Amino acid sequence: MLHGLRLRERTSDEMAHYTLSEQGGTLLITLPRGANWAELILRTAAAALFTRILFPAAIVSFHRHPWHFYDHMLMYGGFGFALALASSLFRWGWTLLGKQVVTLDGISLVHRREILGIGFSREYDWRAVQDFRVRVQTAAQNLPGAPAAARLFFIGGAVMAFDYGARTYELGRGLDQSSAAELVARITQRFPSIAESPVTV
Amino acid sequence: MKVPIEPVRFRIEGASEGLRFVIPQKWSWGIFVGVPVELSLFAVFAYLLFRIWISTVFAPSSFAPKIFLTLFSLVWFIAFGQSVFPWFWNLGGRYILVLNDLELIFRRELFGIGRTRVFDVHAVSHWRYVPEQPRGKQPALPSGFAFDFADKEVRVGTAMEEAEVKQLFGQIRRRFPSAPWAPAARTNV
Q1: What is chain B written as a DSSP string?
Q2: Fewest beta carbons within 10 Å, which of A57, A99, A152, B63?
Q3: pTM score of the predicted model
Q4: B98 pLDDT exceeds 80?
Q5: How many CB pairs under 8 A join A and B?
Q6: Higher pLDDT, B139 or B169
Q7: Minimal C-alpha gap between A14 and chain B (Å)
Q8: How far off is chain B from A199, nearest CA to CA, in Å?
């Protein structure tokens, strides 16, 4: 009998934070939501703290001195922090209930983000999607303490990128490099045309 | 929502000196609207502060308001000076890149006035896309392209995205297919 903490190593399939399926020639990929827990908790705590303190203070002082300049400033500040709190709530909603789906069918590439079925889709014309690839995101090396900040906020993953006209779009923030590479390999194997470079000599 | 396909920002112009690219500055509504609004708000806020100050703290004959006004004007003109160039650059700034068998000419100009740099094209190599580079508290260097000139890097921050840079490189390769200094077919990013 072996005592102590037992950690079961996960296979690469178990570690891949995405799902890929094919239905009638359409490739359906569910991507991770890119949860950034440290940033989320810090932002929420800051917004809650300031909203809790400043917003009621602004209301009270506004009623006492309706036309005082500084009270108005505080009031608008309070509204600002309330907006920050709403933004935090949205981020929590996205992290816990959000869904990011990419659909490729040879006619269009559709990227949909939704929370509980409500969301928006971006549809890219297939003929203009070119050079589908992995793009590694690295933290800025010239900022003091950047690697430490990168570790804290989980910056430095990889995304899938593609050229579309004069712009380059990215998909799948939150993927790690090996998952992104594997996903790109699978997609380009199924649809080789989108891996082609836009300019050929 | 269908995502529109944006055309490239640069255009190729026929020129006797070689292949000439004209790359207008990327338009920013933020700069166009934000800078005048920021300067106006700053002026109004300082004026109100000034009025409150002279009416509550100092006697009308005091020199202090004059000193304040002078200092404020100084700060405002520094802010104005720092903002006015980016505002005009946003309006009419452009980059010009000319390539021929002998030299690479790079010019930044605003309403016809600018600075031109001429490079021996045979010492140019390793064309590449460069992403936006944050610099701490200073404004980030915009994305664009870069090349090596002998032992130094020349960075051209035109705020172009990777896709557009590739198309620019493709045009150079098409015009100079056998030139050793031309961008490689596949550039690292």
Answers
A1: -BPP-PPPS-EEEEETTEEEEEEEPPP-HHHHHHHHHHHHHHHHHHHHHHHHHHHHTS-TT-SHHHHHHHHHHHHHHHHHHHHHHHHHHHHHEEEEEEE-SSEEEEEEEETTEEEEEEEEGGGEEEEEEE--EEETTEEEEPPEEEEEETTEEEEE-----HHHHHHHHHHHHHHSTT-TTSPPSS---
A2: B63
A3: 0.73
A4: yes
A5: 77
A6: B169
A7: 30
A8: 5
